[in-house]
Design brief:
The protein is about 35% helix and about 20% strand. It is α+β, with helices and mostly antiparallel strands. The structure holds zinc ion (ZN).
Length: about 260
């Protein structure tokens, strides 16, 4: 079998035997996959820091019996020093976990690779994870075909504008797929005899911000401290889809 080369980001690493590592890679060409980096835990590893967590590299692999074996790696986009920052490390881990639970192995999702690479570049440029967390979630869900509906009621389809606000707050329902109008919200409460605990309520300004940031490059979100609380809402949707691993989600990614 022939070797092949992919543009990949290292999502996860775990030790194997005395000196090796198993890496979870997310590549533009092959999506999520596992590979062995032999000797990667030796001080004198030929890979150096190129296969550190959240590194991006051109990686050449040789198909093995059970797992592909990494034969070479060349850094893309320079080194990666900010992982010593606990916030950046936590965010990289969050991204890795989300992709791990949202994506099928071996299924390429180039648009999602671009989102992760752009997030990585923004963090490397010094932007705080909190400033981009919500925007990354929005874009990640959009490219997977489960964008959060923020303009109309996700249940009845009624266009909402500023009307979803009740007592100054709008309700976002991960189960419904986005904003829910007052009438649908009341109907759901009556039907289930209680409010859906996974619902998230956001203020008018938070809703406006969520509507605005979905298309802004991550690097341009740097100075918006007000964006940090938005991740509370977007994380709820990521968690919902990660937990559900919905058929529709898989179908959406398979169509691409
Ligand atoms: Zn409705």
């Amino acid at each position: 079998m022939r070797s092949f080369t992919v543009d990949a980001i290292v999502l996860r690493r775990r030790p194997l035997g005395e000196a090796d590592r198993i890496l979870t890679l997310f590549s533009r060409e092959r999506g999520k996959s596992s590979a062995v980096a032999k000797g990667a835990r030796k001080t004198q590893s030929k890979f150096g820091a190129r296969l550190d967590l959240f590194s991006r590299a051109r990686i050449t692999l040789h198909p093995g019996r059970s797992l592909d074996v990494i034969t070479s790696a060349a850094s893309v986009g320079g080194g990666w020093e900010r992982l010593v920052d606990p916030d950046v490390f936590a965010f990289a881990s969050y991204l890795a976990e989300s992709i791990d639970s949202l994506c099928e192995p071996g299924l390429a999702v180039p648009e999602l690779f671009d989102v992760v690479a752009e997030a990585r570049d923004a963090l490397a440029a010094g932007i705080r994870p909190g400033a981009i967390a919500a925007a990354v979630d929005l874009r990640m869900l959009a490219v997977l075909g489960v964008a959060i509906e923020l303009d109309a009621c996700a249940r009845c389809g009624q266009a909402l504008g500023r009307r979803p606000l009740s007592g100054g707050l709008a309700t976002l329902s991960p189960a419904a797929g986005g904003l829910v109008c007052r009438r649908c919200l009341q109907a759901a409460v009556q039907e289930h005899d209680r409010a859906d605990e996974s619902n998230v309520r956001v203020s008018a300004s938070e809703l406006a911000a969520l509507r605005a940031i979905g298309t802004i490059p991550f690097k341009d979100l740097a100075d918006h401290e007000a964006l940090e609380p938005l991740a509370r809402a977007t994380h709820a949707f990521v968690q919902f889809h990660a937990g559900k691993r919905s058929r529709s989600l898989l179908a959406a990614t398979a169509r691409k």
